[in-house]
User: Which sequence fits this backbone?
């Protein structure tokens, strides 16, 4: 992984950096706690703070929502304008468009007493106009450059439309395919999530030194802090009970790496963490984030998250909620208004301190300076990007195809032969323009819907007769259209069945208790299979699915996820072999819902699975492994991964702690007939440790492209951060212990080839 320069918000405005040094992203997770030095307050900020009334200070900590894509002046927006005019507002979310954002900014800058500019935030999660594949799909590329391209395009489109700040990237590791928000993250692995989190932050904020005030960049937000992905049963917003070691090994690493990459803000999460809501959790927000890690940005609450401390049973009322959240480390309140309402009284009663209030305000102002908002509060209305550029579309198409995973391909059913004279496209998503995925904006989605598979297939196979039959709707029990789909399949050389989940079935508040194909879609596949004619299945979905018995009869299955703007073209590129698929699963696909949790990086039990012994950890009615394992993904060509070589067989724990490393090298060869990509993956397993370790954990991956017959040596460098782990000490203890470690290298988490390393 690339070397990270630690950029600080302070240096961005000419202040003194709190902490410096250079860390590698991989090493970031183990940087030891540096006691926090108080952030020096920039003289500009100090001067401004001295002039502010308590109400104005509280105002800077308030973020209010604007109605999406409406202009100023409406009834909903009048309150926002009044607050801006009165200097009682720091930020607005859900506003975009150069004109409307300028109009509101003008009120704050030209009509409020101190003229402090507003910061505008928006959930640009995988694109504004140019919708890239959903984040989970991006993770499946096992190529962080994919997410960097999304972030770079998103930053430009957003900034020129008045958006300064995106609530992204989401870096919630999760073992819950039922959870709808699995679509928004990178799946079940902290290491993979970390790599993507870093690339996305760099893509949004820039790493070319031009700074946050450049019109190409926006501030990022690491969310949701923390352990939101642990929601019990996958039900959104649900309880999370987590040990300190699980917290630090599993949920925190992406956040730490994002901080080291300079992320400007962090968002608190909706869940409790071992009984204490994240919005009132001083252990995570203050002890870890600010004191241990020296975070220099600010923490924004999630939507209404401060007021929800009451529903959590943690705060008595709004005043109590405001006090608990501010004192725990929340700096800005999104949507609810408890701090603005009760702050003055809390201050007068000594329940919150002036020092803490000033600290929070200074953090917000610091980002406004770093973004250059005091100097350039407005955007150039003639400069606003109002549609995807040809270059952005190209990036969306390439990244979508790069994110697809070939789950199954018996008898080389894919790619579709050029000689195919007739092709049937069937299924509810075959002619759908609703393949953008979760988190798009009504305005944007309407203006730039996704490309359709049917149209793209026609364009890719101009000499073939292409027919379409929907068969069934995405939901509901009506199977009346199946006979027409069957008739189309019978007449075709090959049928492409496009099935999946509507985008609204994943994302926030979209948990499912049954994660199979909804409605009559399985029946449709079975009916097509029963024709005995060649067919392939394309899945468009936002989470792992349970694929059911239809899988046996389907010769080929391509996981396309929700591919975004260029969905149709990207799917056709892969179906016809213009792109050879090389993605891998960033999540395990369970066999049934009852098998959940079903993740590759589980801990060892005292009775690991054995087929011959009933008294081992298993279900009586299921094999022990998932349907498709983490890291699984096929190609139209074949690869051979050689035996891994260690640069040495033993290394001392002491040397590792001091920065020593070893190299693992392995050769990979394309043994097939076409060029293609393989993702070489490296996993470690600490055989015996003072805290039971995952049976495997990913510690390296490299996506390589090889021409037929060519080979390459892939090298991984491993150090303390790869072999050690965080203990349960609340103050943070990272340990590298002596003993044996197995190092597995292969093309999925089920890789069988290993080498043993001894740590002395
Ligand atoms: C979500 C956040 C999002 C916020 C603002 C919340 O409901 O949890 O991820 O950034 O809304 O739209």
Assistant:
């Amino acid at each position: 992984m690339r070397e990270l320069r630690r950029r600080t918000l302070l240096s961005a405005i000419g202040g003194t950096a709190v902490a410096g040094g250079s860390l590698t992203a991989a090493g970031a997770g183990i940087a030891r706690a540096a006691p926090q030095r108080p952030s020096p307050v920039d003289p500009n900020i100090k001067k401004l703070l001295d002039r502010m009334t308590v109400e104005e200070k509280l105002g800077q900590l308030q973020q209010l929502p604007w109605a999406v894509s409406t202009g100023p002046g409406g009834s909903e927006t009048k309150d926002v304008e009044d607050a801006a005019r009165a200097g009682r507002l720091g930020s607005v979310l859900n506003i975009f468009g150069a004109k409307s954002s300028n109009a509101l900014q003008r009120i704050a800058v030209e009509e409020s007493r101190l003229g402090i500019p507003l910061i505008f935030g928006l959930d640009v999660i995988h694109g504004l106009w140019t919708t890239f594949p959903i984040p989970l799909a991006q993770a499946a590329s096992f190529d962080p450059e994919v997410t960097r391209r999304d972030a770079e395009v998103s930053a430009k489109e957003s900034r020129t439309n008045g958006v300064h700040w995106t609530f992204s990237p989401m870096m919630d590791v999760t073992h819950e395919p039922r959870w709808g928000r699995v679509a928004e993250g990178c799946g079940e692995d902290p290491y993979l999530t970390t790599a993507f989190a870093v690339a996305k932050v760099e893509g949004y904020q820039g790493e070319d030194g031009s700074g946050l005030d450049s019109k190409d960049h926006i501030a990022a937000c690491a969310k949701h802090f923390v352990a939101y992905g642990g929601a019990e049963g996958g039900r959104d917003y649900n309880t999370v009970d987590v040990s300190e070691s699980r917290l630090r090994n599993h949920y925190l690493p992406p956040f730490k790496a994002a901080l080291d990459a300079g992320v400007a803000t962090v968002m608190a999460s909706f869940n409790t963490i071992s009984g204490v809501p994240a919005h009132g959790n001083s252990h995570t927000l203050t002890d870890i984030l600010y004191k241990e890690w020296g975070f220099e940005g600010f923490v924004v609450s999630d939507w209404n998250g401060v007021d929800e401390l009451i529903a959590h049973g943690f705060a008595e009322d709004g005043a109590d909620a405001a006090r608990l959240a501010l004192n725990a480390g929340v700096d800005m309140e999104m949507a609810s208004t408890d701090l603005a309402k009760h702050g003055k009284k809390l201050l007068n009663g000594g329940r919150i301190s002036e020092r803490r209030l000033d600290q929070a305000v200074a953090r917000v102002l610091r980002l406004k300076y770093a973004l250059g908002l005091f100097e350039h509060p407005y955007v150039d209305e003639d400069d606003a990007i109002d549609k995807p550029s040809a270059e952005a579309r190209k990036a969306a198409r390439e990244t979508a195809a790069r994110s697809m995973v070939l789950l199954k391909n018996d008898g080389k059913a894919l790619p579709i032969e050029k000689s195919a004279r007739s092709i049937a496209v069937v299924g509810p998503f075959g002619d759908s323009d609703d393949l953008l995925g979760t988190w798009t904006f009504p305005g944007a989605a309407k203006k730039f819907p996704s490309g359709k598979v049917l149209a793209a297939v026609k364009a890719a196979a101009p000499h073939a007769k292409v027919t379409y039959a929907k068969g069934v709707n995405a939901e509901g029990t009506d199977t009346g259209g199946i006979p027409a789909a069957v008739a189309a399949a019978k007449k075709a050389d090959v049928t492409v069945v496009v099935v999946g989940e509507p985008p609204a079935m994943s994302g926030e508040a979209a948990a499912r208790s049954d994660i199979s194909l909804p409605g009559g879609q399985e029946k449709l596949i079975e009916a097509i299979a029963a024709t005995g004619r060649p067919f392939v299945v394309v899945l468009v979905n936002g989470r792992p699915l349970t694929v059911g018995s239809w899988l046996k009869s389907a010769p080929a299955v391509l996981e396309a996820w929700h591919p975004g703007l260029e969905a149709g073209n990207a799917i056709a590129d892969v179906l016809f072999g213009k792109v050879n698929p090389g993605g891998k699963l960033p999540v395990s696909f369970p066999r049934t819902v009852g098998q959940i949790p079903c993740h590759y990086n589980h801990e060892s039990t005292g009775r690991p699975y054995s087929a011959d012994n009933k008294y081992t950890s298993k279900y009586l009615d299921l094999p022990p492994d998932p349907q498709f394992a983490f890291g699984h993904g096929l190609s139209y060509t074949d690869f051979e991964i050689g035996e891994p070589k260690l640069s040495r067989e033993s290394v001392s724990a002491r040397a590792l702690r001091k920065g020593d490393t070893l190299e693992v090298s392995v050769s990979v060869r394309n043994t097939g007939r076409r060029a293609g990509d393989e993702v070489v993956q490296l996993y470690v397993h600490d055989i015996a440790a003072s805290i039971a370790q995952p049976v495997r954990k990913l510690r390296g991956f490299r996506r390589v492209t090889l021409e037929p017959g060519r080979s390459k040596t892939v090298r991984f460098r491993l150090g303390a951060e790869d072999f050690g782990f965080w203990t349960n000490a609340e103050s943070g203890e990272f340990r590298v212990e002596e003993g044996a470690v197995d190092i597995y290298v292969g093309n999925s988490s089920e890789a069988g080839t290993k080498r043993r390393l001894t740590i002395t």
